[in-house]
Automatic annotation (TrEMBL):
Cofactor detail note: Binds 1 Mn(2+) or Fe(2+) ion per subunit.
Chain residues that bind Zn(2+): C95, C98, C132, C135
Lineage: Bacteria, Bacillati, Bacillota, Bacilli, Bacillales
Annotated binding of Fe cation, by residue: H89, E110, H124
InterPro entries associated with the record: FUR (IPR002481), Fur_C (IPR043135), WH-like_DNA-bd_sf (IPR036388), WH_DNA-bd_sf (IPR036390)
GO biological process: negative regulation of DNA-templated transcription; regulation of secondary metabolite biosynthetic process
GO MF annotations in UniProt: DNA-binding transcription factor activity; transcription cis-regulatory region binding; zinc ion binding
Key words, A-Z: Cytoplasm, DNA-binding, Iron, Metal-binding, Repressor, Transcription, Transcription regulation, Zinc
Protein name: Zinc uptake regulator, Fur family
Domain of life the protein comes from: Bacteria
Family according to the record: Belongs to the Fur family.
Location within or outside the cell: Cytoplasm
Pfam family name, one: FUR
Amino acid sequence: MNIEKAWDILKNEGYKKTDKREQILSIFTETEKYITAKDILNVMKKEHPGMSYDTIYRNLSTFVNLGILEETELTGEKHFRMQCEADHHHHHFICMSCGNIKEIPFCPMEVLQNAIPGYEIENHKFEIYGNCPSCH
């Protein structure tokens, strides 16, 4: 997702444009990796020494709820990245060492649905974790 689309969503939902929100979104547009609230805090404390973890986390939660950010849990901590703008359904391989992401261009749900006949799947999330070729 690009930053202009993110601001359109925020504006349509009644959120004001602030320097802090702008900087948080900017950090996400500069990387394809999943990053933590702590990563954002480390960057933002340089310009905003009084910035709190709670302020960042509240904004991240808002961005996730509005579909601006994706979230996943890695090593017991929530990680975030900008929502994909792909025009097709897909999943991701996430490198546990460097955080790089590789798109998986298909979905295994058809195979899984066949394995549990009679069950109605309403939603799913599928991620693969490991090490990319650079970190292996």
